[in-house]
Amino acid sequence: MRYVIAICIVFLLLGCASTESKLENSEIPDIGQYPPPKKGITKKRLAVIDFKDKTGGQRGEAGADQMTTLLFKTRRFRVIERTRLKDLLAEQNLAGIVEPDELIKKGKIKGVDLLCFGSITNFEIQHNDKSLSGGILSTLANVVANYYSPVPIPNLDFDYLKVQLDFHIGVDVRIVDTTTGEVLFADSSDVKRTETASSLGLVIAGISTRPDGRVEIDNENQGKLLRMALDRAVKKMLPDIDYSLEANMHK
């Protein structure tokens, strides 16, 4: 019974440990939400190739997957599944070509009207807290929990939910006509913000930092931040995309 009471008290203190509310479904609001396209538009077939990660990371494939989903959600393109794109490139002996310029030089890729290229230009996350742990609530929770528990309870730390992060995520995106090689739409997104971990839905338990203050987070949380930057780039391109689609309707 005393152990049950201890657990209840711990959860009560945990609820009080942060005034920040975690986002439902661990998603940042408004990502992938775009105004509907005009009726009567002609949707071109679009495919996304692997992004270049210029930061030295391995996020190129994840960036392309996320961009594919976001462009599909705009409802302005007939988006080709990335596995199907690989098949098309293999069928046309283009499977080994990964550079955007090389793909365009080959002329039109059958079955694809538009290609989306992208690069990740920055991906840096740093903490700006002097301390990443401890605090009066953590101390109080440990004292109370161990008083009521029949067995020792490891040290508890609730402050990780309030870790402040400075992050800088940069991406460049281009959509190119596969017939002419013309860049039809291009934009960049450079997201710089300071947030608490919980306000972004990032649960950073056991946070680790390097001497330069950079924070290491898991792939899921990295993807969430990258998706935010890509979404901003899409939203910046939408006015030009809609202008082009509307112009084609009147030809």
Automatic annotation (TrEMBL):
Gene3D superfamilies: ABC-type transport auxiliary lipoprotein component. PROSITE patterns: PROKAR_LIPOPROTEIN (PS51257). InterPro entries: Curli_assmbl/transp-comp_CsgG. It comes from the Bacteria. Keywords: Cell membrane, Lipoprotein, Membrane, Palmitate, Signal. Coiled coil: none annotated. GO terms for cellular component: outer membrane-bounded periplasmic space. PANTHER family: CURLI PRODUCTION ASSEMBLY/TRANSPORT COMPONENT CSGG, CURLI PRODUCTION ASSEMBLY_TRANSPORT COMPONENT CSGG. This is Curli production assembly/transport componentCsgG. It comes from Uabimicrobium amorphum.
